[in-house]
# Entry
Amino acid sequence: MKSIKRFISLLLCLLIAACSDVLPRQRGFLALPQMALTPDAMEFALRQHTAFSKESGSGGYGGGGGGCGCN
# Structure
């Protein structure tokens, strides 16, 4: 029981330490292309267009049209 309490307190300390404010001068480092969820913007746009065309729905990513992919 004592080891569980120690583990939980250690986990809480680590989680609290991970929260920090980002200063304006540090935001440039976080905006680097290496930090992006999708590093290749063109490939992401192509995949989104393909998924949009296959689903033939409008909304979510802005754009209208049918499922033919001609828009």
Residues 22 and 41 are 25 Å apart (CA to CA).
